[in-house]
Amino acid sequence: MVSIKRMFASLSLAAVSALPGFAQAAQGWPERPVTVVIAYPAGGAADVVTRIVLNELAKSLKQPFIAESKPGANSNIAAEWVARAKPDGYTLLVTSPWFAINQYVETGRRWEPGSLTPVARFALTDNLLVVPASAPYDNLAGYVAAARSRANPPLQYGSPGAGSTQRMAAELFLSQAGINAESVQYKGAPPIIPDLVSGRVSMAVLASANVTALIQSGKLKGLATFGEKRGPNTPTIPTMAEQGYPKAVVTSWFGLHAPAGTPAEIIRRLSDSIREIVSRPEIQASLRTADAQAAFLNTQDFDKYIQREQELWKDVAENLKGKK
């Protein structure tokens, strides 16, 4: 239920947006640099993929779009920062599945999904289930059989964070396969890699950008992708659906959100510009180089997509209660 406080805040923002001066400012936007907050450290997958789009937005809209990393607290620091920003189009947030997940796994948040409004989705990246090269199985069925034979104590898998997309994807798969594995928590994906390569953990679900090169070099085996189809850079790795798990579809998406109350004209201009940018063959090629795929959704479709994501992760979070 929407709180009275939030309802009045939304009404106040709507009233402000209707003022003539506010409308004129929206028509002239952007007249100065735009800050785009990323909830992950510089150099990571989200940062690399986002900068490809931001560089082109700066050219299209003739103002700098400046990426600013604000990592920490499972993306809640970045979300709160933007949710509290003035809704004038000069502060935006890069969102990914954590936006749909955090409300079910995080307490003490000082922002809500309703305090931010969707702009557009611009890209997707695959999540891969990977195992050590030394593992005695070469497919998902082999891993499931091994997990069932090691029920007590269970196999361990590497998790890049309690509320991360990859941890949630792993638990979604384990639930659908009817097997148990114990999560070992790491601070992000990079620390998992050495333990995974050496066999200290039995598997991990990680973004393709983190593991594609290791699979190609023979240091890891890729058993499945959580994508709707095989990844363009990993065409030999079958999907979860191909191996009997049609509901285990988890893509790491990237989109933009703005503070609630941002004028609709600004949202429309941003969405239209992003659509044109990601339709270009050269941008699609740049995204593929970063292990991502162009995947545009306009404001309305992006909103519907997030609602479906929230339904999925609410169920997964319920199954996670009682686990570490």
Automatic annotation (TrEMBL):
Renumbered to this chain, the signal peptide range is 1-25
Coiled coil location? none
Q: What protein family does this chain belong to?
A: Belongs to the UPF0065 (bug) family.
Keywords on this record? Signal
* Organism (species): Achromobacter mucicolens
Taxonomy, superkingdom: Bacteria
Q: Which Pfam families match?
A: TctC
The name this protein goes by in its record: Tripartite tricarboxylate transporter substrate binding protein
